[in-house]
UniProtKB/TrEMBL annotation:
Family: Belongs to the annexin family.
Pfam families, A to Z: Annexin
Protein name: Annexin
Keyword Calcium: yes
Originating organism: Sphaeramia orbicularis (orbiculate cardinalfish)
UniProt subcellular location: Zymogen granule membrane
GO cellular component terms attached to this protein's record: nucleus; plasma membrane; zymogen granule membrane
Amino acid sequence: FPVSSMLQAARGTVKASPNFNASADAEVLQKAMKGLGTDEDAILQLLTARSNAQRQEIKNTYKTLFGKDLIDDLKGELGGKFETLIVALMTPPIAYDVTSLRNAIKGAGTDEKVLVEILSSRTPEQVKDIIAAYRQEYDDDLEEDVCGDTSGHFKRLLVILLQGNIEADAQALFKAGEEKFGTDEQSFVTILGNRSAEHLRKVFDAYMKMSGYEMEESIQRETSGPLRDLLLAVVKCARSVPAYFAETLYYAMKGAGTDDNTLIRVMASRCEVDMMDIRNEFRRMFACSLHSMIKGDTGGDYRKALLLLCGGDDAKDSRGKAKINTKAQVQGSDVMLGMVMSM
């Protein structure tokens, strides 16, 4: 493995089980689903304690031992949000992104939120893998499907992200962002799309020095709708992917109702990648732990499984000295924008 992927794996909360035995695990799962009733606890305790690669081995061994498809059996025994979460955990990461994108495009209407989240947060290498897997699975071109389902600058930026060209000139980038923003959306879309995160962070700093505004504030002021959401997501991911996902999780649970699809998608796709960092950012930004918010917002086996993926309650080992970026501060951009616009 490259060093970077090893370091990244160390930031996950779910790790490969050291004493892994696929046959023993397959038998535990079969026993949990056999006969009357289902032992949901046995299922969730086992699957949240295995890496995705190990779950794939269990799935293959289950088929060999029992002649059945493990995911089909799980779907037959489980239900609701808990089933959705377990199926997400049983799906290889790239395949999970591919399915999520397909459902976002091909469902009734377009789920822009899913397109924004996946395409702004994955690396160019991951996006290439997603495009190839999408073609293999559906015999369709992801870029064409996205183009057929979206429009305007939103579509253009999605296409640039899909093409993954990381080529930029700092001065030209800054000039286009500083001088043309608001009057020439196209150039701004191109700038943010043809990005490397490190490069963009320098551009944002320069933009702040020259204009007095954070890039996010300008985007809030000058754009709207799905394009604004996508531009903001790209900027936030350039600054910090874990902070972007911390905010995504927070707003999935905040207020009345829960956006369970987003909660499941993020928890399932980031638990082996950077969940420790997401938890740290969550605590820093919102002055409460991710664990406590999940606990208060969900229930049953679904909650148990999510908390195991979360992997610990930061509120317990905090001395209450977390740097507090309060909700008011996060939402305060609206107030600031109002002040800026009235100047």
